[in-house]
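During the practical work, I worked with a single protein chain and the tokens that describe its fold, as given directly below.
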Amino acid sequence: MTQKFKQMELFDPNGMDVNHVLNALDSEMRDAPRVWPALLAELVDTLADHYESREEMTPQKAMEAAQNVIVVIAHHLGGRNIYLPRDDRLKRAIRDAMIYQAFDGSNHLELSRKTGLTTPTIYNIINKERMLRQDRKQIKLSCK
């Protein structure tokens, strides 16, 4: 293996895991609570804990899975300031997305019974979710 190839491997982002990146950072930057590396480490640790406790993964597999998820999220959302809702707003957003996914074009009444929501509310949720997805598709098309 040539020296040049070895050097390229050292800087290949696909070959680095999150801990490798964090360990390479200046300790002041890494440990600052308002700087992205601290948030990155917190997200990885939170996901790893989730995978260990709820998915019964080994600590090593949990850490690998957590890092993979964070890399995917960073790839798609990297560079943006994002807001993540908590508690009821998050649950409602997930519920609405699930209703939209379950909608087959004619099962408003069934969805209404399953969720305990009124039929007009189901219509509103489906329309809102459809608009969200249309906006995303149009943004992707305009960027190409």
Summary: Confidence is low (pLDDT under 50) at residues 3-11. The chain is about 75% helix and 0% strand. Residues 87-143 form a domain with the Arc Repressor Mutant, subunit A fold (CATH 1.10.10.60).
